[in-house]
Amino acid sequence: MLFDLTGFKILPVIIPDGILFLSIFFPQVFANESKTIERLIELTEPRGRDAQEKVERIKEGEKAYLRFCVHCHGLHGQGNGKASSYLRPLPRDLSLGIFKFRSTPSNALPRNEDLYRTIKKGVPGTAMPAWGDVLAEETLMSLVEYIKYFSDRFQIETPDFKMSAGLEPPYEKHSVDKGKVLYKELRCGRCHGEKGERSGRLENKLTDAWGNPSVVYDLKKPGLYKAGFSSEEIYHTLVTGMDGTPMSAYDYVASEDLWHLVHFLQSQQKSEEIPPLRMSQKIVSYPTSKKIGLSPEAPVWQGIKSVPVKLRALKSASGKPAVINIQSIHDFKHIAFRLQWKDETPDTAEPGARFYMDAAALQFSSRSGFDSIYYGMGERKKPVNIWHWKADSFQKVEGRLRIKNKWVAVNPFSEKSVEEMNASGFGALTVQSLEDQQVTGKGIWKNGGWTVVLLRNLKTASPFDVQFRESMNGLVAFALWDGKQKEKNANKKVSFWQQLQIQ
Among residues 208, 243, 349, 384, which one has the fewest Cβ atoms lying within 10 Å of its Cβ? Predict the structure, then answer.
């Protein structure tokens, strides 16, 4: 018999011409397929009130995307926004439907909760910020729904099951030793190094699915674990892999063994302080009756509240996030900001220097809402005012002779070491004219860190300057360059907008 029709119904059908033919009915096959199709339709095109609510949610998601995400991910989610050329790793191409961070098996779509987590917490070691610090839960969920429309995969597939992490065994020497053996057996060291220190033979030779360089992370630094560094988060990274990268899924390894590997990785981690700072905070400029000068160690700064601000590296090679501490005061005529941050080595301009200097910048907008202007160099018709300080030869470094060579003073205007600039988006950075250079500054490196003071009149005659006034609410963002890390120009660490209040 050519076909085995066991279990199927054969129904005789007579058509008007009297011809008899057999209709074969495959009940179970079509029933399952029908249920799958119906489920897809319900997920993508729900009925009635649910459909209307989803439409409204997607509209809100589109508004939020165009406000906060389009600059990196592009209008159609293809990872080609105006900021993308300055970022490493490149922003994710959402239109391909390939996602690194999932709780689902390799090559499967992420669940809503996976997308939500990535948007809310951000991605360490990249420019992707933790949007949960500044956006409401409803906005985060609307973004989840909207970005799914960039890829057809979400219209024809449903996310797979969530891979269970099982029960974590006790963290003890026996478990760590077993994990060490597995680390060698799986040849993890070829990329990550023998002890996870990013020194494997394949480091700097790997590319992702699109041919872009794929950075191997130092497993000793938990703050750079992209998908998180808790036990369960590390387990899920191992069992699901990172689609589109050389990091494969070890779903074929027994759950208990993977837990041993997790414990070995944790045993290699260096203890580091990871500040639980929110992305956006309030900085208050307090009034004072005392004289404000340029001395970074002046008594006037004592007792002034210092606000720690977290900055993210735009390129992954720059390492973990930095923290800069900000103070501000004004005497109703002048306003000053004091910046303090840790830096193991003072990189200043001097004879024989590589011209990778330590530097800092403040970026101002007179607008009050962080959602009113993009924090990366402003926007067209929405300019920002920038104060850029560089550690030229006139900055004091404890324990080092002061160098008098004028040729190494990189600022063309004066010994102030500060340039005032304006920007209206990427590629639209201009230096203000000599007469509009009104900011003065001074820095000192001491005890493993910089302290820098920047000073200017509250109000100036320049139409390009931000104008300060009492009771003003504005925005300020910060940037740092570490000369030792060869950071320069767009290779830097940046903060999100901080609320600035002039009391």
Answer: 208
DSSP codes joined into one string, 195-227? TSSS--TTTTS-B-TTS-B-PPP-TT-GGG-TT
Contact in structure between 182 and 267 (CB atoms under 8 Å): no
Confidence category of residue 201, pLDDT binned at 50, 70, 90: confident
CA distances for 263 relative to 53, 252, 269, angstroms: 44, 18, 10
The conformation of residue 333, written as its DSSP 8-state character, comes to S
pLDDT for 383-426, tens place per residue?
999 999 998 756 667 645 444 444 333 444 345 689 999 998 88
* 352 phi and psi angles, rounded to 5 deg: 85, 0
Fold designation for 173-268: Cytochrome Bc1 Complex; Chain D, domain 2 (1.10.760)
The reply to whether 48-156 and 282-502 are identical in fold is no
Structure-block tokens of residue 500 = 């600035």
**pTM score:** 0.81
CA distance 497 to 125: 19
Q: Which helix (H) or strand (E) holds 397?
A: strand 396-397
Specify whether the CB–CB gap between 478 and 359 falls below 8 A.
Answer: no
The model's pLDDT over 309-351, given as tens digits with 9 standing for 90+, comes to 999 888 766 556 789 999 999 999 999 999 999 998 888 765 5
Is the per-residue pLDDT at 467 higher than 50?
A: yes
**CATH architecture entry for 282-502:** Sandwich (2.60)
Confidence band for 291, pLDDT divided at 50, 70 and 90? very high
Q: Give 48-156's CATH code, choosing from 1.25.40.10, 1.10.760.10, 3.30.565.10, 2.170.190.11.
A: 1.10.760.10
Report the 3 state secondary structure along 3-62.
Answer: CCCCCCEEEEEECCCCCEEEEEECHHHHHHHHHHHHHHHHHHCCCHHHHHHHHHHHHHHH
